[in-house]
């Protein structure tokens, strides 16, 4: 990991290289064997274990859509055959009514204004409105995407969402050991939680807000004490 600034060249190489948010492959010139890759935003340069995926991670206040990222959106308008969705970015995203598992022109989901959806960004470009889909593009199966019914949406920092997506983070396993729960984590600063009891849902939400580095930044011992105080 290293810090990068906008315009800085990044030495990312792999036979199946995939660039994530914050990186751009430029056109280059004939004298270079591979087009140079530059950072488009300041942050920490990261990559996966085998070096095939690279991205720049930072804790910006507003979500910037990137292709293949999972987000939680709120339906704000019905638009023709689809919907307009608030995902917390500068522009609302569009969601086609057919971008669901098993959807046809005669059998489309009837989402209402205010409904929550868990979706994947299928198109993200600075000059275009982002587009969403609620299925896996290869299998055409929902793979967990679609309308989120019941539960509660917690708003938190983008950094907190990335921490919760890390299997090594303590919070969700700690809560799951105490009571059954469901979660959907969007990298756009939103987490959907559900449990059998309303008190448990409120407890999960309070724990996420307490651990958030932009909030309390509470550690495992602090959360254990908070749960005792909540009677969970």
From TrEMBL:
<dbReference type="GO" id="GO:0071038">
    <property type="term" value="P:TRAMP-dependent tRNA surveillance pathway"/>
</dbReference>
<dbReference type="GO" id="GO:0005730">
    <property type="term" value="C:nucleolus"/>
</dbReference>
<dbReference type="InterPro" id="IPR049469">
    <property type="entry name" value="RRP40_KH-I"/>
</dbReference>
<dbReference type="InterPro" id="IPR004088">
    <property type="entry name" value="KH_dom_type_1"/>
</dbReference>
<dbReference type="InterPro" id="IPR037319">
    <property type="entry name" value="Rrp40_S1"/>
</dbReference>
<keyword id="KW-0540">Nuclease</keyword>
<feature type="domain" description="K Homology">
    <location>
        <begin position="151"/>
        <end position="198"/>
    </location>
</feature>
<dbReference type="GO" id="GO:0034475">
    <property type="term" value="P:U4 snRNA 3'-end processing"/>
</dbReference>
<keyword id="KW-0378">Hydrolase</keyword>
<keyword id="KW-0963">Cytoplasm</keyword>
<keyword id="KW-0698">rRNA processing</keyword>
<dbReference type="GO" id="GO:0003723">
    <property type="term" value="F:RNA binding"/>
</dbReference>
<dbReference type="GO" id="GO:0071034">
    <property type="term" value="P:CUT catabolic process"/>
</dbReference>
<dbReference type="GO" id="GO:0004527">
    <property type="term" value="F:exonuclease activity"/>
</dbReference>
<protein>
    <recommendedName>
        <fullName>Ribosomal RNA-processing protein 40</fullName>
    </recommendedName>
</protein>
<feature type="domain" description="Exosome complex exonuclease Rrp40 N-terminal">
    <location>
        <begin position="17"/>
        <end position="62"/>
    </location>
</feature>
<dbReference type="Pfam" id="PF15985">
    <property type="entry name" value="KH_6"/>
</dbReference>
<keyword id="KW-0269">Exonuclease</keyword>
<dbReference type="GO" id="GO:0071035">
    <property type="term" value="P:nuclear polyadenylation-dependent rRNA catabolic process"/>
</dbReference>
<comment type="similarity">
    <text>Belongs to the RRP40 family.</text>
</comment>
<dbReference type="GO" id="GO:0000176">
    <property type="term" value="C:nuclear exosome (RNase complex)"/>
</dbReference>
<dbReference type="GO" id="GO:0010468">
    <property type="term" value="P:regulation of gene expression"/>
</dbReference>
<keyword id="KW-0694">RNA-binding</keyword>
<dbReference type="Pfam" id="PF18311">
    <property type="entry name" value="Rrp40_N"/>
</dbReference>
<dbReference type="GO" id="GO:0000177">
    <property type="term" value="C:cytoplasmic exosome (RNase complex)"/>
</dbReference>
<dbReference type="InterPro" id="IPR012340">
    <property type="entry name" value="NA-bd_OB-fold"/>
</dbReference>
<dbReference type="Pfam" id="PF21262">
    <property type="entry name" value="RRP40_S1"/>
</dbReference>
<keyword id="KW-0271">Exosome</keyword>
<dbReference type="GO" id="GO:0000467">
    <property type="term" value="P:exonucleolytic trimming to generate mature 3'-end of 5.8S rRNA from tricistronic rRNA transcript (SSU-rRNA, 5.8S rRNA, LSU-rRNA)"/>
</dbReference>
<dbReference type="InterPro" id="IPR041054">
    <property type="entry name" value="Rrp40_N_euk"/>
</dbReference>
<dbReference type="InterPro" id="IPR036612">
    <property type="entry name" value="KH_dom_type_1_sf"/>
</dbReference>
<dbReference type="InterPro" id="IPR026699">
    <property type="entry name" value="Exosome_RNA_bind1/RRP40/RRP4"/>
</dbReference>
<dbReference type="GO" id="GO:0071051">
    <property type="term" value="P:poly(A)-dependent snoRNA 3'-end processing"/>
</dbReference>
<keyword id="KW-0539">Nucleus</keyword>
């Amino acid at each position: 990991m290293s810090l990068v600034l906008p315009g800085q060249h990044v030495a990312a190489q792999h036979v199946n290289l995939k660039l994530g948010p914050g990186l751009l492959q430029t056109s280059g010139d004939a004298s270079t064997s591979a087009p140079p890759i530059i950072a488009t935003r300041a942050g920490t340069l990261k990559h996966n274990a085998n070096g095939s995926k690279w991205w720049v991670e930072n804790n910006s206040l507003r979500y910037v859509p990137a292709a293949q990222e999972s987000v939680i959106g709120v339906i704000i308008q019905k638009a023709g055959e689809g919907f307009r969705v608030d995902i917390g970015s500068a522009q609302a995203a569009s969601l086609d009514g057919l971008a669901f598992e098993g959807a046809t022109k005669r059998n489309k989901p009837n989402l209402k204004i205010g409904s929550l959806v868990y979706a994947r960004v299928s198109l993200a470009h600075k000059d275009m409105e982002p587009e969403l889909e609620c299925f896996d593009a290869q299998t055409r199966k929902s793979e967990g995407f679609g309308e989120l019914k019941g539960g509660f949406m917690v708003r938190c920092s983008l950094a907190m969402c990335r921490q919760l997506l890390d299997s090594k983070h303590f919070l969700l396993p700690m809560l799951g050991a105490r009571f059954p729960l469901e979660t959907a984590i969007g990298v756009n600063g939103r987490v959907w939680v559900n449990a059998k009891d309303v008190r448990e849902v409120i407890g999960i939400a309070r724990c996420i807000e307490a651990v958030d580095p932009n909030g309390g930044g509470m550690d495992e011992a602090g959360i254990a004490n908070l749960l005792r105080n909540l009677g969970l």
